[in-house]
């Protein structure tokens, strides 16, 4: 059965994409630690990041770094947080989010999916895309 991320990637479920290429996608988390919280995900469905081939792992991290810089700049944050947790969805993903302090690395404080403001989520995606030079589909023009 396809993971929820595969369903988002394939358009079966909605997603706010900020980046997309042939190997990796990035879209906003529906349960963000802060607005701008983005998931960087390989298209290939691999549960554990330690099982990714070296080329995909390297590319995933290169895009995570690019998204991290975009998130940091879009939200004027001191840092871009980076977390690999891997328990919530069995599909490798890197959490990237704007952060100013260590206390923000706490998933217990994340917004619930039904508690986010849709307009704020849309604005966050737009701000990140502007820094990445991508369109609503996540592709660079």
Automatic annotation (TrEMBL):
<protein>
    <submittedName>
        <fullName>HIT family protein</fullName>
    </submittedName>
</protein>
<dbReference type="InterPro" id="IPR011146">
    <property type="entry name" value="HIT-like"/>
</dbReference>
<dbReference type="InterPro" id="IPR036265">
    <property type="entry name" value="HIT-like_sf"/>
</dbReference>
<dbReference type="GO" id="GO:0009117">
    <property type="term" value="P:nucleotide metabolic process"/>
</dbReference>
<feature type="short sequence motif" description="Histidine triad motif">
    <location>
        <begin position="91"/>
        <end position="95"/>
    </location>
</feature>
<feature type="domain" description="HIT">
    <location>
        <begin position="4"/>
        <end position="107"/>
    </location>
</feature>
<dbReference type="GO" id="GO:0003824">
    <property type="term" value="F:catalytic activity"/>
</dbReference>
<dbReference type="InterPro" id="IPR019808">
    <property type="entry name" value="Histidine_triad_CS"/>
</dbReference>
<dbReference type="Pfam" id="PF01230">
    <property type="entry name" value="HIT"/>
</dbReference>
<feature type="active site" description="Tele-AMP-histidine intermediate">
    <location>
        <position position="93"/>
    </location>
</feature>
<dbReference type="InterPro" id="IPR001310">
    <property type="entry name" value="Histidine_triad_HIT"/>
</dbReference>
């Amino acid at each position: 059965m396809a993971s929820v991320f595969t369903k988002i990637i394939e358009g079966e479920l909605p997603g706010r994409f900020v980046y997309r290429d042939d190997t990796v996608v990035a879209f906003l988390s529906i349960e963000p630690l802060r607005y701008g919280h983005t998931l960087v995900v390989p298209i290939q469905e691999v549960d554990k990041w330690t099982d990714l081939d070296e080329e995909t792992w390297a590319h995933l991290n290169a895009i995570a770094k690019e998204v991290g810089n975009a998130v940091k700049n879009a939200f004027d944050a001191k840092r871009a947080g980076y977390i690999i947790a891997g328990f919530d969805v069995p599909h490798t993903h890197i959490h990237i989010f704007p952060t100013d302090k260590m206390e923000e690395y706490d998933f217990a404080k994340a917004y619930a999916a039904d508690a986010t403001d849709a307009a704020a989520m849309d604005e966050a995606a737009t701000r990140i895309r502007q820094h990445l030079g991508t369109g609503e589909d996540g592709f660079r023009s």
